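Schema walk-through. Below, the input block comes first and the output block second. Nothing else is stored per chain. Lengths vary across the set, and this one has 241 residues.
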Amino acid sequence: MPDPNRWVHAALVGEVRETATARTLLLDAPDLGPALAGQHVDVRLTAEDGYTAQRSYSLSSAAGARPVQITVEEFADGEVSPYLVRDLAIGDAVEVRGPVGGWLVWRPDTGTAPVQLIAGGSGVAPLMAMLRTRERTGSTRPFRLLYGVTDPDRVYYRDELAALERDGVRVDLHCSRRTPDGGAGRRLTAADVQRLAIAADEAPEVFVCGPTGFVEAVATALVEQGHPEDRVRTERFGPTG
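--- output ---
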């Protein structure tokens, strides 16, 4: 197996504009080992003067898919994301290493339990890898996605999620600032989680990914509602630096 700690070449071979500030990059990285759904890679940029900067990005592509995909949200004061979102052109190269991670991982051969995904903002990326793996493997496991965003125009993978809904995946969108019909949104509450997520007595596998505050609030609500802690897998992120 390829060494996940070794930096390898990756060329941009395709792109999808997800939102005004987010872009999916399709990277051809033939020397990168096969990934599981939910893992991430490190991306390294090197300037002409030799200065390097690296960041971690979840893989949003299905397990084993080529080219691999990452979705990058641009941060105005970021060191890496503005270049990846605005400047990296088809044919340009970066370095990647990985895949990394073994906790927030879904394997389609681990049973028949339903799967509940809960995402906050860009935390939907590794969960999208799970949804794509379900589709790619022909799994019939019941899946639900509870997706929290600030505004409807911040939704990633909009058309693909609509297609997955037609294929038996339930998608619940929750907007904290502005709803799709233009109304005022509100923060996701424990009552919303209880109403929209698969009930604890159905023993689902649960995966939660998003900003730290969002993940902590959702995980606490799930445990209080009877979900065993070891069935609630979480991954959180915050600003770099």
